[in-house]
Amino acid sequence: MIAPVERGYAQQLSIVHIHVFTKLANYGLRPGRLQLQALEANIPQECPSRVLVALINNCSRQNPAILYLSNMAVKRTHLQTNTSYFVTFTCYKWLPLIEKTNLYDDIYNWFDLLKKDGNHILGYVVMSNHLHVLIKLGQHSKPINTLIAEGKRFRGYEIVKRLKELKLDELLNQLSDGVSDVERKKGSKHKVFEVSFDCKECYTCEFVQQKLDYMLHNPVKAGLVKRREDYLHSSAKYYEAGGQGVYRVTNYLEFYDVPVG
Length: 261
Prior knowledge:
Layout: H1 4-26, H2 35-41, H3 49-59, H4 64-70, E1 84-90, H5 97-100, H6 104-116, E2 120-126, E3 130-136, H7 144-165, H8 169-177, H9 181-185, E4 198-202, H10 205-216, H11 218-221, H12 236-241
Antiparallel strand pairs: 1-3, 1-4, 2-3
């Protein structure tokens, strides 16, 4: 149930959704990356993102456009702190750069830096070509977009360094060929990761459980192991078998008003 003070936004939300879709249709555009940003730009600033999501969920049964928008993957800037995010970023063209460079230690060092700044790692799985991580931001943390941009940049430097040490010139050439003219003019020499990354704010314990279940099943789905907890570079050992794995995580239930048993 949405509180009375919040119900006033529901009608306006519907209007904004219709406005966004109408604008796109007028320009012959199909729904893309910017709808939610356009939506938030038309909602009063005092309406927090959490209320916005509640309103979307509340209105979706009456308005198919709202249901469609609420389910879309959107590239956006996430400014909330003291909240949790499910983050995924991927190597360029899904190349197995993490595995080829044995980058796992560097990723765990990055996790250490995040924790040093007051954040918590709630779960993770590091695959050969992509990474999933659940991060609980501290109250004074940088925005998640900044954290991930920095993480990708410095992991990228390390991958290139290791590829050079291993003399993996074919991979280096592929990464070099992936740099656009615009990026090259800005000084980029290698495209190590895909430009965009997936980032979803976790509003509920159930949503965290869903994302945790999804990411910990990755190694099983890929045929690398039969049991989740047998994959080394994952927090599955903690959540499935009760013991910390190669990297220590914090139980997500500590942050969602659910007793840790």
